[in-house]
Amino acid sequence: MELDNFLKDLGFIVRQSGKGSSHYVYSHPEINMLVVLVSHGKNDTLPEYQVKKAINAIKLLENRNEKN
Q1: Architecture of 2-67 per CATH?
Q2: For an engineered disulfide with 26, which of 1, 5, 12, 33 has Cβ 3.0 to 4.6 Å away?
Q3: Does the pLDDT of residue 1 top 70, yes or no?
C-alpha cells in the first residue's frame, strides 16, 4: 500500500487495531488526528473517504510545520 509508506515517511506511527485485523490506525505526535485505513491485501483499493482523511491529516501536519 503506497499510502502506508508515504504516511510512515512523514513520521506517522501505525498500529493494527487488533491481532489479524485489516484496520490500520495511523497517528502523528504533532497533530491530533487519527487516520484509519482498511486493507484486505496488497492490491486492495482504498475507499475515497479514507484517502481524503489521510490527505487532510497530511495538510494539517504541513500547516503546523509551516507555523513553526
Answers
A1: 2-Layer Sandwich (3.30)
A2: 12
A3: no
